[in-house]
Amino acid sequence: MTLDKIYHAAFVLKDIIRKTDVIAAPELNPDADIILKTENLQVTGSFKVRGAAYKISQLSDEEKARGVIACSAGNHAQGVALAATKAGAKSLICLPDNAPISKIEATKKYGADVCLVPGVYDDAYNKALELALELRDSEGYTFVHPFNDEDVIAGQGTIGLEILEQVPDVDAVIVPVGGGGLISGVAYAIKALNPNVKVYGVQASGAPSMVKSVKEGKIKKLASVSTIADGIAVKEPGDLTFDLVSQYVDELVTVTDDEVAAAILALIEQQKLCAEGAGAVSVAAAMFNKVPVAGKKVVCLVSGGNIDVTILSRVIDRGLLKSGRTLSIQVNLVDKPGQLQGVANCIADAGGNVTYINHEKATEDMSITDAYLRITMETKNFEHIDEILTALSDAGFTYQQF
After folding, report:
1. What does the DSSP 8-state code read for residue 384?
2. For the chain, which has fewer Cβ within 10 Å, the N-terminal or C-terminal residue?
């Protein structure tokens, strides 16, 4: 990897990708100067088009004529499909069968043939290699790796150049990490031009392959991964990315799915931006102080926005719960007149907004005169929840949260 290669990628890509904006987001963490690099607004909705387009641009005319094959959790697929179509090449993409429908359909619309593979990204990767070998003699497809490729890494590294140009006094950059192609390119570019800038990587706690690999000093393959951040659900990093991350990244941390959901919700409400799970992990790390951001100017790289709408609704529900915006309780009652009104008055006086209520008679393990209420309500924050629960306790009601 060289800085010249990244600059060359920036030159090649200038008519293919858009230079995405940086947006101030002070509400995300009041102790830091947070700025968002909005790759979720990139062509195809993700940074992946950068590396894919640069890789394909470096193929010979003969290689382009034979076509390309790739594997992806969804975003690389769209980048390869678009770049290949623009280059006049055919593309065959292997995707995990649990990839969001929106990503699958978008990949097809960009002109690719799609092969759905049972499992996660690594299973799609193995299938792509198998097909590339099978079709080598008849079709001659060139395999475009989603992260473990110097041209792909150089393409992603152009984001690092843009960040330093757009925010020259940046103190730290927080980057999502799956296989490591994005952070490898970004960290290399930034450290080559300004080694004083800290570069932090973030993985989902349910898919910490790079975190474990760097910690143990060798590449580790996870037995399984599970996270709402499907774009970074990678079992094993590449050798190129492992070496670059080990050398140029200052620290790697993880965030939970609940923290990611809270970050997605905050981006929607406060910044009017839609991010997928993988794209929001950098914001989650800043929001929940997983890296030292206090008093610093920090760029969070929002790497993608391709989230399926059905998943988005579930993520919003989780985000509301994580940020204290919703409360569900079971209130134990003596089944007599006025009890429901008493509970309702406590909640209303404290400013809670009931969205669901259900009254149930006693079960076998309760007194025959007992009943209970299941209530879900909208709340402002955790302090507001405490206020409502205190009001119920002071009024003599007992409850359980669920």
Report:
1. H
2. C
